[in-house]
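#dry-run=false #mode=assembly
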Amino acid sequence: MYDIIIVGAGPAGLTSAIYGVRGGKSVLMIEKLSYGGQIINTPEVENYPGIGIVSGFQLASDMYEQATKLGAEMAFGEVVSLEKNADVNFKIVTDGGEEFEAKSVILATGVKSRPLGVDREEELTGMGVSYCATCDGAFFRGKNVAIMGGGNTALEDAEYMSTIANKVYLVHRRDKFRGDRVTVDRLSKKDNVEFILNSVPKALKGSPKLDALVIENTQSGELRELDVQGVFVAYGQIAQNAAFDKLTELDKGGFFASSEDCMTKTEGVFVAGDCRSKARRQLVTATSDGATAAMNAIDYLNAQE
Ligand code: NAP
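#status=ok
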């Protein structure tokens, strides 16, 4: 029986673990694949106070080492069932059939990539279509690629790929980018980057590998075929909380309904990071949530004693 089980070991979950064990509680993190969450795909984090510039992977590894050195434990597997039983403890089962019990839980499940939404996307994923320029960008050295989206991820992916690829098309559905002006300005000075605004994807071509993307201008209806071997989708993220909708309330977007206190309507259930309703999804807001959720879990546990 753990005091706190944390589902998800991204920056929010790892921070909860650090605060949980330092608060004298036994803590287990359960993670589907590997610790670190989305941050491991970021080549350079330069907005985490006090660190300067660090790779996302390094920062995640440091957080993991800190949490486990302090005494947090780690288990791998996807949580397929999480129920509150009659004696108000939580029973958790993973896809590997492992069972765990806890007095409280912190859900820090993160988010997943929003799809492009075009035919053959699944078939061509890994064959030219990717959701992570940092992970797959090196396969496109000297080739032409399209980056889809207008947020900071798309802008940063375009900047990164401009150093690897021959030509980078940045395709966005509106006439203004959502991401930071400073990155747009840097990109506009790059010879091998072309902005294609007011445009949406219509078709992916090529077999077995991608060799072209067809886009449509939303103003004129004109179609254009881009000779690209890579398409990087940066359409933001969606929640992946459906497995927990009976345990606690979700908002309309599928995020855990919660405010800045990271509490939920279900006693003993706390939520942290990108998976909950919030206005800003940043590394620093995720770690902030991790601390808040753990401190509230500790107060809850102490009140039960
Ligand atoms: P985001 O800010 O939500 O941007 C997603 C982009 O995809 C938007 O430009 C959006 O267009 C477009 N989009 C979404 N659905 C679409 C669809 N169905 N068809 C066409 N276009 C679609 O996501 P993000 O860029 O991944 O960033 C997520 C958060 O992380 C943000 O808060 C961002 O600032 C932050 N972030 C920060 C850094 C950094 O500070 N270093 C780096 C990366 C990300 P619209 O603009 O028209 O809605």
